[in-house]
Amino acid sequence: PVEGESHLDNLLRALVITRLGRAGDQQIRQEAKSRFSVHARGGAQINPDIRSAVYSCVSSMGQEEDYNTMMRLHEEEELHEEKERLARSGMAAFKSKPLLAKTLDFSLSSSVRSQDSV
After folding, report:
1. What is the SS3 string spanning 12-80?
2. Which among 44, 81, 100, 117 could bridge 107 via Cys, Cβ 3.0 to 4.6 Å?
């Protein structure tokens, strides 16, 4: 975010990142993957305003390694909001049928609150 910009600009930025990344823009995808990798290793956190967009871009690349990393982050996370962000913008956004089947099984397991799997 840029200091002094409006809340709507923040929302628009995340939307544009998501759409470009899911459409295959390589520059956006590379930056999202880079930020995700650093975040997953415990380095710099992704700004919450674009975190869902980053997860969505990474999932659009369809790498099982990234899926497994998101699953690990979900299991390690304590904040419910972040768990939901990982599940909805990340794990549920992969296009691979086997990974989506794993996500469905996971969403119906005891690892996810029943009210969150609807």
Report:
1. HHHHHHHHHHHHCCHHHHHHHHHHHHHHHCCCCCCCHHHHHHHHHHHHHCCCHHHHHHHHHHHHHCCCH
2. 117
Residue 25 sits at φ, ψ, to 5 deg, of -60, 115
Instruction: Give the number of other Cβ atoms within 10 Å of residue 97's Cβ.
Output: 8
Tell me the C-alpha distance between 66 and 57, whole Å. Answer: 11
Residue 89's identity, in one-letter code, is: S
Q: How confident is the model at residue 112 (pLDDT cuts 50, 70, 90)?
A: confident
pLDDT digits (tens, 9 = 90+) for 12-24: 999 999 999 999 9
Residue 1 has pLDDT above 70, yes or no: no
Nearest of 28, 111, 34, 110 to residue 76 by alpha carbon = 111
Contact predicate 17/9, CB 8 Å: no
